[in-house]
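Per reviewer request, we include the raw input and output of the structure prediction for the construct analysed in the revised manuscript.
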Amino acid sequence: MTRHPPAGGARPRLLVLRALGLGDLLAGVPALRALRRAYPGHELVLAAPAELAPLVAATGAVDRLLPAAAPGRAVPRTLDWTGPPPEVAVDLHGNGPPSHRLLAALRPLRLLAFAHPRTPEVDGPPWYAEEHERDRWCRLLRAYGIDADPADLRLPRPGTPAPAPGAAVLHPGAGAPSRCWPVERYAAVAEALRARGHRVVLTGGAAEGDLVARLAKLARLPDTDVFGGGLPLDRLSALVAGAGVVVSGDTGVAHLAVAHATPSVTLFGPVPPSRWGPPDHPRHRALWHPGPDGDPHGRATDPALLRIRAEDVLAALDAPGVLEEAP
């Protein structure tokens, strides 16, 4: 990931703050690549969680990862920044003011960020809550004269072999219970797919081992098709890139499927796909029942998500361009 500076001294540095999760990183790829093009002579440093390093490298936009994280979607209290101030700092974390102040404390020569009434010194564009995440950050950069394409989000295929080539990957977990579709319905989808001759494998995060084990039991899946407990990110990326389809809620794995052009069916509840959904393409299906916004961090399954039936998911899987017939 490190590019060597040219003779004559170190390059000026550009610091980007996006200390969030997997889906957030992938939604920010178009903006990162736009910054790379706009500042080709700078060392681009991304403040983000250390565990995202394999995908940060795969973007081709980042020279160095500065490990940074905080619980939930909070702003880190400090950044382990050393040396002179960054020439440019870019807030891709949120609309401030905590993220503005964190970057401003490093005394960058220029700060690119959305405007906020409590940080009037930041002269940026307005923040629109209803905007799609990929579009939001590209609009921020365009406001500063930097061309950015929200569709520039594909990642190269990983060098790691796919653990289950062509399989249907079911990922029942999410960052909060409100975005978790009932495990019994995932089991019904898994059983139907297996009856059609498809291999079904399960994935889950580090804290979702019990959830994945319960689904595996309900769907009567062999241990060889269960990847619970948190796959290393390079293996998860390889699994998704080589899958026949990915079925999940609104979580990072859905964005990984988009990045690898893997067909997907994504189930939305508290937040509509107009804000976090996949691009408009036949291989990606977003299921959602319109209604009032819910709590994406809530402790109970969102009512809109509960309106999606197993039959709806199977119908989406049957749509042209999604899941090919089993061999």
